[in-house]
Design a protein that fits this description.
Belongs to the SdhE FAD assembly factor family. InterPro entries: SDH (IPR005631), SDH_sf (IPR036714). It comes from Bradyrhizobium commune. Keywords: Chaperone. By secondary structure, the chain is mostly helical. The chain has one domain: DNA polymerase, domain 1 (Orthogonal Bundle), CATH 1.10.150. It is built from five helices and no strands. It has helices spanning 13-23, 28-41, 47-57, 61-68, 81-88. Helix 1 (13-23) runs antiparallel to helix 2 and helix 1 packs parallel to helix 3 (47-57).
Length: 96
């Protein structure tokens, strides 16, 4: 997979921007983790979840990747319910 498989048609500007940012993180690992999650969920996220996603996107890639893999603990204000959903989201077909 080389990028988003979801069309941004029908998304508001905020969701389009977040979808783009999830697929263009800086490291391929985080592009795939956040990009695939955003492809599947961006249209269904509440305003509160969008705020949480925006907060997560402010965390640098090495720290966020380490937190997702369990090697680092991030502050509680960053690791809410959406972080748990991203962490549990399948990263490849049939895997999690």
């Amino acid at each position: 997979m080389t990028g988003t498989t979801r069309s941004s048609n029908g998304l508001d500007d905020r969701r389009k921007r977040l979808l783009f940012r999830c697929w263009h993180r800086g490291t391929r690992e985080m592009d795939l983790i956040l990009g695939r999650f955003a492809d599947a969920e961006i249209g269904n996220l509440s305003d509160a979840e969008l705020v949480e996603l925006e907060t997560l996107l402010e965390v640098n890639d090495p720290d966020l990747y380490a937190a997702i893999t369990g090697d680092k603990v991030l502050p509680a204000d960053v690791t809410g319910a959406l972080f748990a959903r991203i962490k549990a989201f399948p990263i490849a077909d049939g895997q999690s």
